[in-house]
Structures are given as C-alpha cells and as structure tokens.
Amino acid sequence: MPRTTFEHSGSFRFRLEPLSRTNEVASGLAALVHDPAWALARQWQFGEFAGQDAGSPVLARIEGHNTLVSAWRPARNDGASGDPAAVPAWVPYDPASGPLDALVESGDDAGPDEYLRVEGGAHFVRLLDQAGLSSKLPQVLAEYRFAEMPTGAASLVTLLAPRVPDAHELAKDLADGGLRVPGLTAVGERWLAWWRGVTPPQTPGPDAFDPHHFEHRSDFSFGDRVLHAEEYLGDGLDWYSVDVDPSGVPAAAAPVRSFTQEVVPSTVRFGGIPADRFWEMEDAQINLGATDVSSLDTGRLLLISFAEVYGNDWFLFPLEVPAGSITTLDDIVVTDSFGDTHTVERAGRDDPRWNMFTVTGTDDGLLMMPSGQGAVGDFLESVALARDELANLAWAIEKTVTLRGELVDRRERWLRNAPQGPPPNDIGSYAVQTIVPDYWLPLVPHALTANAIRFALVPLVQPGAESKPVGRLLHTDHWVHEEEVPREGTMVTRRPVVARWFDGSWHVWVRREKNPGGGETSSGLHFDIVRPSETWP
Of 305, 330, 423, 480, which has the fewest beta carbons less than 10 angstroms from its beta carbon? Predict the structure, then answer.
C-alpha cells in the first residue's frame, strides 16, 4: 500500500512498498501462467510442436578394441645403405615401464657430468653421516676416487672432488651387485634409489637423433602396423608426430584387447552456453548478445547460432584408453530417456576427406602415444644456426653451454678474453681479416651434386682466438644439410625433463629440441681491411 510523506516544500512524495500476502516463496518461484492454453497455442503457431523426439541420452554402451605398442627403433638415416641388415633392430617396449619420450629423445650416453658426479658423491657422504658410518669414508675414497681429478679454476667441482667419491663409479658397482667396501649395503640401496631419480638412465638405448638434421627419426610397432616419425622435433610425442609406414615390417604382433564399457553421457558445457533452468543465473563473463557482428561476419554468426540454438544438443561421455595404444570403436549404442536405442555412426564415414585426429595412412582409430610431457628445465645448451649473406657463410653459434654443471654464456666469456685490436693511429692499421668471436663456428658449403650442397663445420683460423665447439650438440667434423639452415634460422637446444608416470615413478632425461630461429645475422667478418678508412673522394 502507498505510504505518504510530507515535505517542508509543501509537496507530497509517494513511495510504493510491496507487501507479501503470505509467508512462502514457492508460488513466486513456480512462475505460474494465468492462461496456459494461450501459451500452448502460441507455441503451436510458431511450429514448436513439430520438432523431433527430444529424448535425452541416459546410457551408452561402447564396444571396441585396443592395439598396444610393442617395440620401437631408430629409423634408418638417409645416409644409410639399402642393406636390410643396416636397419636397426626392434627394441621391446612396455608402456608400463615409462614414457616413450625418454627413450626417443635422450640417447645421450655421455653420462653424468662432473658436477652431477660430485653432487652424487656429496650425497653419499651425507648418507654415511646419517647412518653413523663416517669412519668408512676413507675406505670409500680409496676405492672410488675420481680417476682424473678435475682441475682448473676454483669451483664447487674442484673443491669437492678430492673429498667425495665418484658417483658414477658408485652407481656402476651398485648396479652390478654391491660396493667394494663391506657394511654399506643399506646406505648403498638408499643412495642408488636417489641417484636413479636424478640422473638419466645409464643405458638409454639406441639414439634416434639425426645430427645432420637435428631431428629424431624413429619407428613404432603397433600390431600389424608400423608408425614412422620422420621429422620429430623433440617437443613431445603425439598423434600428429607419426604417419603409417606402408612398407614397414612390424615386430612381433602385439595382442589385441577388446573391451565393452557402459557410461553415462553428460551435457557439453562451455562458456556462454544458455542456462538449462528457468531461474538459473547465467554467467556474465561471456555475453554473446553483445558481440559486435556485421552482416558479412559468417563465422561469428554461425558460432553464436550454434551456442544459442544447438549448444544443449551435444553430449559427451568419458572413455579411458591405455597409453601407447590405437583405439578403434566398433559399436556405440545409446539409450535415451524413452527407452529407445540408437546406434551412433562414425562422423564422416561416407566422406573420407572429412576426418579428425586420425593418423595419416589409417582409416580410423585414436592414437594415444605413451608420452610424458613433464616439467622442462632451463637450457643446458643452445646453438643457433643462421645464414650470413654478407660473408657468404652459415654459422653455428654456440650461445650457451654447460661446463661442470654451470651454465656458461659464451658471449660473456668471449668479451672477457677477447684479443685487443691494434691501437688507433693517424695513418690507420691494416688487417688481413676481422676477429670473429670464438663461439661463432663457420659452416662452409660443400657441393655434393649439381643441385645439392651441405654445410660442413670447419675451424676458423684467426690470430688470438680458436673457434671450436665445446658443447655436446656440435663436434669438430660436424655437417648439416642445407635445408636445415633456412633464412629464418634454427635454434637447437638441450633441456632436462622430469616426468611422473601413471604408476607414480619419476623419469629424468635430457631432451634435444629443434625450433625456428631469429632470422639472418652478420658476423662482421671482412678480409683485407684498413681501419679507420677515409671516405671516397
């Protein structure tokens, strides 16, 4: 009822206050319609009763089969002979043993560096102290001292190496049966479990890395099919990394596992989907009604139409498939809320050009690679491959390397030790060539045929500086294919990876990865020069 308020200005102000006649709220939330027959008539006029059966799926029965990966091998490089004996042998693989990435991407059998060997030895000394066996340390040092004591500038490695055992030698003896010092069985078992969790496997298996392409090439045996990864860049195995090799001979046939599973479908949810219930408040973060769309913006119009009209017509159900398998669905039968059953056919089965998430060369099947992306660490080494058109060369630039566990910026080290040029004078100074930093390694083109060349890593002879690789990605007699040094360049890196598998085990390896570079560069290399030079008159 209205409430009247008198103001000093002589005017009246009225305020309406709604008063509930009852103490319950159910009637208001029910949203009762005064004339439901009129609402039904309007629905009939707009053709809303001419729709299809609107039964919702309540149960789905899925039948299919899985084919597991049983073996892998490095693919034969393009420089290998056609002899079948030159094809690498298949290596058995069980997905339960760990991620396949650790085998394909690592292959770096150089072993732990001096820093990790010293760190492992220090941890062994720490475990001896915790077990009250510090008196055994002199015997351990006598048996497991570093064969070649690290020398050079004072660092953590040079300071600790004489005081701790060599972890690499400890690990070899523990893996073969036991230490040469009695009474350390329990300490050795604890230390070996820790060591295996922080180091890559000592025998990672065959190396699938092609140093002339800086890519991985490998084959995987799935039942009666062979999947081939031709240009795997080392950034995590996935279904798009492989294609079917029609001429490949698989390893021993892997068993085919059939399955039947019943699941409960649920509606697809996404941002901006209309609310299902009448009184449900919709999320205001996405407002499709406020989208700025022109009459020719077909893509946005279709997206809005799908979300508003058909968004609640899609359902999904979970299906767990084993890692390292190709899963093929044979039959999907859906039961709706009216008790009717419907067989769901594969989308695009009548149009082979329409397909999604299918490996090239197969008709059907979802490939789930046994990949453990894991956590990727900082660079252990980085090499940039770039072209230098002014010098008519290509360069392999070692930007960072890891020496004794410490990351070394080669540019900073060069600036500290770079040779000084001649002092300036009035008449100028002559030089046969300019000095190029020692971490710039020239790649000289060598002609193989009339249409093919390759870049070979050659030493750069210059006074006061010696250019040679000090990392693990390059070596003195290295060569690469010309197409691996495009105009945009290439960046090759080594990075540590730690991943946890589905059984809770930890796996550590060093990944070699290839990525696009930063474009062309200039080394400043010139020959037969006088500095400073005068302007041409």
Answer: 423
